[in-house]
Amino acid sequence: MTMTLRTLLLSMTATAMLAGTAHAADVMSDSPFVPEAAPYNGVYDWSGVYLGVQGGYGFGDSRIDDNGITGLDASLDTDGWFAGGIVGYQYQWNSVVFGIEGEFNWSDFNETAEVQPGNFVGNEVDWFASVNGKLGYALDRILIYGTAGVAFADISTNQRTPGLGASFSQSENYTGWTVGAGIDYAATENIIVGLQYRYYDFGSADYSAVAPFTPRDQDLDVHTISAHLTYKF
């Protein structure tokens, strides 16, 4: 066998082997049992559990009324700072992100006013919390969302008349609702920073009192602006 014939045979054999390999690859890629690999496009995934801290400022209105017993009917501007923690879970489907979140905050919302000469009334919010649903739209590492849920708070009312040397203070738990919106930015794969606005309507509660003070009811609603830092697992 000449060198030319041997070279030709080797070339034909190599070509056949390459063609068979390519055909086998095509068959495998067309097989329903072999999943097609999805190309990575670099879009951030917001799915996962997250845990973090938050803090901000709140301001609102409170009304204290003893229902005509003595004519006590006071409206107070309540404001102050708050700080707390948040925990939640989110799931992303295409660009839509939805999830659930819980928060708990310590606050110093309070106000005192002289409603009559020598008669001071006030309120104070020791803590507030909420459980919320979230729905948002993701633009890669930016998430714009709305949130709403059930709100809770521990709110006290107080009254003092220094001239009589008497004072009254009582705390009650409130249940209401909250709604808001925010924006998050994923600084890294795990670190997320954001800003949020919330409106809380904590509803009202009844307070009992003994003479010289009278039973009354009190309601409270608050607007808050906060910043948060979370870690996504």
What this model shows, in words?
- The chain is mainly β and 233 residues long.
- The protein is built from one helix and eight strands; from the N terminus they run αββββββββ.
- An eight-stranded antiparallel barrel has the order 1-2-3-4-5-6-7-8.
| Main beta-sheet annotation | 8 strands, antiparallel, barrel
Tertiary shape: elongated
Enumerate the spans where pLDDT stays under 50 for 5 or more consecutive residues: 1-29, 33-40
Order of helices and strands: HEEEEEEEE
- Terminal Cα span: 69 Å
Spatial strand arrangement across the major sheet: 1-2-3-4-5-6-7-8
Please give the number of β-strands: 8
Secondary-structure map:
Blueprint (H helix, E strand, L loop, with lengths): L2 H28 L17 E18 L7 E21 L2 E21 L2 E21 L2 E20 L4 E21 L4 E17 L8 E17 L1
Antiparallel strand pairs: 1-2, 1-8, 2-3, 3-4, 4-5, 5-6, 6-7, 7-8
Give short descriptive properties of this protein:
disordered N terminus; 233 residues; mainly beta
Task: Summarize it.
The protein is mainly beta and 233 residues long. It is built from one helix and eight strands; from the N terminus they run H-E-E-E-E-E-E-E-E.
